[in-house]
Design goal:
Among the domains are: 190-290; 416-656, Alpha/Beta hydrolase fold, catalytic domain (Rossmann fold, 3-Layer(aba) Sandwich), CATH 3.40.50. Helix content is 14%, strand content 33%. The chain is built from 10 helices and 38 strands. Strands 30-31-34-33-35-36-37-38 form an 8-stranded mixed beta sheet, sandwiched between helices. Strands 2-3-4-5 form a 4-stranded antiparallel beta sheet, with no helix packed on it. Helix 4 packs across helix 5. The two termini are 43 Å apart. 53% of the residues are buried.
Length: 670
């Protein structure tokens, strides 16, 4: 900690130990916590590693059964493995453990493999005729471990890939049986504990899985689907997600009451009985496979079954135990994901769960929580996060703000505001800081409630940041999430503009030095904000959408009809697509931009970014363009992450007239 008085320094020019390189040095993205169903003291998780080319490795550690003390983390996958599926392009659910054996999809060829405890690797699926044409995700093993039931995405079948449920033999015979293929999409195949029933979720175009889905429950035996028990949902705007069987049957999250709450499913009649309910979302939009935010330890040794769920509140996540008690077990945790039933324990430790948790003072860590006989919680960190490596005076807990928005200020939107913070610097008394407005992707996503070194990179340099939960964001219930229906490019943009105006009028920031940055859907929001609104002085678009028509006709299957709800059906609503596409209104963009793009992006292809760059260049607007080789949708490689962030800082400083204290690379401005 520093004890000296802070120096008066212009905003944007503060020196900071949080460098772009420090964001990736030793960084790992911890996610997808699993508990071995046959060995519940063995906790598994995945780690994505920017310094290793963005590859994902699988780890595990064992809890001591009596003392609940974790053993050392062990990397299970070989150093050349990259565990990542491309189903839906976004992936997720690319691995699962069973009795110490790991089943995983390798990014290189998308084939499913079995990794035995002795290190032997067996390929379980055949090699497709064309590379990566057969992709697998979201698997579960039958109780006898003879079959894996999972999602397969089969390319080269026609106008779009086929998505189906399949059963894969685990003996290495490359036997793959199609179980069900009667919908455009399937996810979350789940087996009852005795293997006698199976449940899964399906939906059809033009819905997304957070719009309207169906829950199927069938009999199951010998690796085959049997008679239908019940199917819930049609196209009535009810979204089911995160199903799972336990000792008391099937539970699922549903938003039919306005929030993604947890329900028991009465199989014969399909009645939903509330288990954990309230004005909070337990589930999150299933952009990726394998998400889970509730768990029920499979034991009744301590009386009634315990149910632990995450309540997604506007200010952060809370753990709900047994539907009554809200408990955090650690007040520093404000973001919880991948909740899994944990160790059954003994008479001293009790049953438990495992999850990935983060706070505003630490990155994601793997946590085991035990429930005592009296209902108390004890917490063990299985895989700690990395140390920040800098003065904790640079850490910030943001202010959650709500502000008026819309054409007449009749609506309300939300955001997380981060004030400039650095114990070594203060700004001049007659100066307000510049503001960076962040538009998250999705657009059905949410500003992250946890430490983000990428935000501290800006605030520690004297730049304020607001992370906007514009209308359409998750975490505020179904009505708020659907407030973007038909209004993408309007409501989200109004809310980003409204957040900046609110903070400027409040006196927190300089209204003449407003920046806006976003990626993917957030990149479109950036482009639309610059094309249709005044006020922002500079923008940064990462793989953003410039031409809505091009996106409607040239993107992957999962999102190929997403714009039907966000904009309108195409081509029937072509006039709306043209009216809202920034590429057709580049004459109205009068501020400089930096555009960043991956050259292997299948979701927003490079031609989207190149169209806007060429148009701005032709108009004479200063524009910088960075194309990253080997990157898909989002940047995973350490050097590219560093270059992207440093280039944005250099570009913003050059446009707004502040001189960063860092040695930064030259950015070519066309």
């Amino acid at each position: 900690m520093t004890n000296r008085e802070p120096t008066v320094t212009p905003y944007g020019a503060w020196s900071s130990p949080i460098t772009a390189r420090s964001l990736v040095e030793g960084a790992v993205g911890i996610s997808e916590v699993r508990v071995d169903p046959e060995d519940p003291d063995l906790i598994w998780w995945s780690e994505s590693r920017p310094e290793e080319g963005g590859r994902t490795a699988i780890m595990h550690a064992r809890l001591d059964e009596a003392a609940a003390v974790p053993g050392p983390p062990v990397e299970i996958t070989p150093p050349d493995a990259n565990v990542r599926t491309l189903v839906h392009e976004y992936g997720g659910g690319s691995w699962w453990p069973h009795a110490g054996t790991l089943y995983y999809v390798d990014f290189s060829d998308q084939r499913l493999r079995r990794l035995d405890p002795d290190g032997t690797i067996t390929e379980l699926t055949p090699e497709p005729e064309t590379p990566r044409a057969l992709r697998y995700a979201d698997g579960r093993l039958t109780p006898d471990a003879a079959w894996i039931v999972c999602v397969r995405e089969r390319h080269g079948t026609g106008d779009e890939p086929a998505n189906e449920l399949v059963a894969i033999a685990t003996d290495g015979s490359s036997t793959v049986e199609v179980l069900w293929a009667e919908a455009d999409f399937v996810m979350a195949p789940r087996l009852a504990l005795d293997g006698a029933r199976i449940a899964w979720i399906s939906w059809d175009h033009p819905n997304m899985p957070w719009d309207a889905t169906r829950l199927h429950i069938h009999e199951f035996a010998d690796g085959r689907i049997g008679d239908e028990i019940v199917t819930l949902g049609t196209d009535d705007e009810i979204s089911f997600c995160e199903p799972e069987f336990g000792i008391h049957g099937l539970r699922v999250c549903s938003d039919h009451e306005g929030w993604w709450n947890l329900y028991d499913v009465d199989h014969p009649c399909g009645t939903l009985l509330p288990v954990v309910s309230g004005e909070f979302d337990i589930a999150t939009p299933p952009w990726v496979f394998g998400m889970q935010r509730w768990g029920a330890p499979a034991t009744t040794a301590f009386g009634p079954e315990h149910v632990i769920a995450v309540a997604g509140l506007a200010t952060g996540d809370e753990l709900i135990v047994d539907g009554r008690t809200i408990a955090t077990a650690d007040s520093s945790i404000v973001s919880v994901s991948h909740v899994r039933p944990g160790a059954d324990g003994d008479h001293r430790t009790g049953p438990g769960i495992a999850y990935a948790g983060a706070g505003y003072d630490h990155e994601t860590e793997v946590v085991s929580v035990r429930i005592s006989e009296g209902g108390g919680l004890s917490r063990t960190v299985v895989r700690p996060s990395r140390e920040p490596g800098f003065d904790r005076g640079l850490l910030i807990s943001p202010e959650w703000i709500s502000f008026p928005t819309g054409a007449d200020g009749e609506a309300t939107a939300h955001g997380l505001y981060y004030a400039p913070t650095n114990p070594d610097h203060v700004g001049p008394p007659d100066e307000a800081p510049p503001l960076l407005v962040l538009a998250h992707g999705g657009p059905t996503a949410q500003a992250r409630r946890q430490i983000q070194a990428g935000i501290l990179y800006w605030t520690s340099r004297g730049i304020a940041v607001v992370d906007v939960d514009y209308r359409g964001s998750t975490g505020y219930g179904r009505d708020y999430r659907r407030a973007l229906t038909g209004r993408w490019g309007l409501a989200d943009v109004e809310d980003c503009v409204g957040a900046a105006r609110y903070l400027a009028e409040r006196g927190d920031v300089d209204g003449d030095r407003l920046m806006i940055r976003g990626g993917s859907a957030g990149g479109f929001t950036v482009l639309a904000a610059l094309a249709f609104h005044d006020g922002f002085a500079v923008g940064a678009s990462r793989y953003g959408v410039a031409d809505l028509e091009a996106l409607a006709t040239d993107t992957h299957k999962f999102e190929s009809r997403y714009l039907d709800s966000l904009i309108g059906p195409y081509p029937e609503a072509r006039d709306v697509y043209v009216a809202r596409s920034p590429i057709h209104h580049v004459d109205r963009i009068d501020v400089p931009m930096i555009v960043l793009q991956g050259d292997e992006d299948a979701i927003v292809p490079p031609n989207q970014s190149e169209m806007i760059v060429d148009a701005l260049e032709a108009k004479g607007i200063p524009v910088a363009y960075l194309l990253f080789e080997g990157e898909q949708h989002g940047f995973r490689r350490a050097d590219n992450i560093v270059r992207a962030l440093e280039s944005e800082l250099a570009f913003f400083g050059r446009v707004l007239g502040f001189t960063p204290a860092d040695p930064l690379p030259a950015v070519e401005i066309r």
